[in-house]
Structure formats: structure tokens, C-alpha cells
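Worked example

This section walks through a single chain of length 453. The input is the sequence exactly as stored; nothing has been trimmed or padded.
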Amino acid sequence: MVTEHPTRPASRVRPGERAREALQAARRRTLALTDCLHDAELTAQHSPLMSPMVWDMAHIANQEEIWLVRRAGGRPALWPHLDELYDAFRHPRADRPTLPLLTPTQARRYLAEVREQSLSVLEELDEARLTGEALLADGFVFGMIAQHEQQHDETILATHQLRSGPAVLDAPPPAPALSPSPREVLVPGGPFTMGTDHATDPWALDNERPAHAVDVPAFFLDAAPVSNAAYQAFIADGGYREPRWWTREGWAHRRSEGLTAPLYWEPDGAGGWLRRRFGRTEPVPPDEPVLHVCWYEADAYARWAGRRLPTEAEWEKAARHDPATGRSLRHPWGAEDPGPGHANLGQRHLQPAPAGAYPAGAAPCGARQLLGDVWEWTASDFTAYPGFEAFPYREYSEVFFGGDYKVLRGGSFATAPVACRATFRNWDFPIRRQIFAGFRTARTARSAEGAVP
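Given that input, the structure is written out below as C-alpha cells.
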């Protein structure tokens, strides 16, 4: 199984070297996730929610060709006739199996040919040019493409979970939570710096920028994501049968889709639950964060528990704000790149770690697992920050802004470190459950509770 955990802080690595390492790590993972399957599995559509995996393979290559070979390198197109075919905005996922897609063999050849050209372009760009124009500065465009490939690798992994065939992936389980964590933590009220900029994080994407001050009142946040055991209590108490816990839209969706439990769960016939995980059926671990729930389910649970989902600003303040210095950290634990002791990232494991794990990765407020394990639904719609500027193209973020999408934060066990940081913003429709998403809850602090001694 491909894993990724950097051994050196990005700030100590030259831009060209960092770019090369990130591109190579992404490609190893792409091939590991696709070489383990027969061609028929790669060309099949395992769910209308997802593309055939062979589409993702060629789309990865096409985006790399457009941005690294043509834009960064100024070289002629290799396979220009593929641009429209692998344009994600032209072809909905459900329709992609009907397209004249490349075969797996052709897609692998395309990946290899483009990568050879990309690395040649990178070799020709001296360090001076990688500190010049915005697209190349600190290797941004190479980092953007490495993140893009890793994001599609996470999508491919989600497709592995959807497929009905036998297990082909394996990885060791994560370590248990050896030290207890509090039930909730207090995040003091006051302003903090939300978002980032190029100087702080050169590979941050446009929707993470610019850094700006946000005043967040004091609140309490779950110290760890909501566990399977806690969610089972919601189910047992009739949470899926009681409309008062659901928004009007959420209740309508629950009824129309017949939701009664998280995706991939089924009763074991003895009062418990089983789950299917990458081709294996197993008992639902009570201490793991709940996974594969949509925003409506997360919101209903929070209401049932007498709490709410945190806003995006609350989530980021909990993850980054250091009251001792008044500064916002790059990661919950500080500036150091994520390592195996900080968070469950990079597909080292194929499941979340128990709730409360990774004390070394705790934020200053004491909350754990804010990066890795499960994407966390927030209460916020996906909108632009004040002063937002689309870069390098509108279709990465701007066209998705509005009330249709909810923000997720923190990454999952399937998210690569290069594509996960405390400022990273993910978004999806509130009905989505195939993604590796869970949540934690919050409550507003009363004035006396939120006072800082």
C-alpha cells in the first residue's frame, strides 16, 4: 500500500525538489490504486456517483499536460484531442461511461508520456524562475497538479469502496488511542487570522486566500469526532424516525432515499451493526469516528444531542489559533509537516483511528484529530473570503460558491498530506455519503463559561 508522510518541513526543501517529490508520490499512489485491478474493473462504472476509474486516470494526465507541459513549459500539446473528452465540466460523471474513453493501456501510456515531459519542464526551470511569476512562484503550479492528482486518488479510493468485487487493498490498522481526551474543549472568544497567503503557504489554493481577521465568539467543540458508538445511540433512540431532528430538506431526503444508518452499514441480526469496508464485511468498531454520513445526518445528530455543527470559522479557529501567541498556526500542532505521529493521513491505513487518537497532533485548544481520519462537515456554505481572487482559473473554486455546497474541513485517512492543511477547504452537496466524511459537534459558550482567566 502506498503511503505518504514527509520527513522534512516543506520550508527546508527547494521548490523544484519539493515539486518533484510531490509529483512522484502522487503518481506512485495513482498506479498502486489502479494496477491492482483488471481492465474490466477500471472501465466499469461502479456507481453513477463516480466516474469509471480509467476516466480519472486520463483526466489526471490531461490536467497535467495542460498546466505543466503547455502552460509552465510552453511546449506543444501532446494529445490535444483529449481536452474536451476529459473536461469535467462538460461531462457529468453519470454520462462518462458512454464516452469514447481511452483504454487502461492507453491511459497508462498517456500518464507516462505527460509525466516525462513534466519532469523535463521542471528540470529546465531554474530556481530563479520558480520565484518569479505567480504561476511558477515556489513551484505553485506543480504543487497544484500534485494536489489535483492526490484528490483524484482519494476519489479513486472512494470508488474502490463502492465496488462490489473482492478486496484488493490492504493496510495495517491504525494505533489505538492510548491516552484519554476530554469530551469537549473551550475555544475562547475573540479575533483570529483565518485563511492564508502565498508567503505563509505557497501551495495554498485560491479559496484558502487571502488571510483575514474573523471575530469568533467563545464556543465548546467536541475534542474528537463523533464516534460510531455515539451515532448508534442516535439510531437506537429513533433518530432516523423522528422528523424534529431534521431540517425540512433533510427529512425529505431521508425519506426519499430510505436512510436508516450510515452508508455501508447493515444490521447484524443481533442488535448490532456490520459494515462493508473495501471488500470486507466486519463489525462496526464502536470507538472509531462515524464515517459515510451526509450533512443532513450530521446536522440531525447534532440537534438530537442538543448541540450543532461548528461553523467553518469556528472549526479553523479551533484548529489553528494559539491563544498564547495570538497567531494562527499552519497545522494544529505547529509548522512541522504532518508525520505519522500527528495525524492519520496519506492512506497509511484504510480506516479512521479511534476517536481521541494522536495526542501529539492536538491543537492548542486540546482538540484532537482535526486533520486526518474523517472529513468534518461544518454548518457553513462554500463562499469566497473577503478579497478573494480566482487563481489560476475560475473553475477551481469560484463557480462552486453559493448555497448549494457545504464546507468540509480537515481531510481523512485517504487524504494526502500535500492536499491537507488547517486552511484547506473542501466542499460537497449536503446529500453526499460516499466521501470519507464524519463530523464533530459544538455549542455556544455562555459568557461566564467563555471567560478567559
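What to look for: The domain at 10-162 is CATH 1.20.120.450 (Four Helix Bundle (Hemerythrin (Met), subunit A)).
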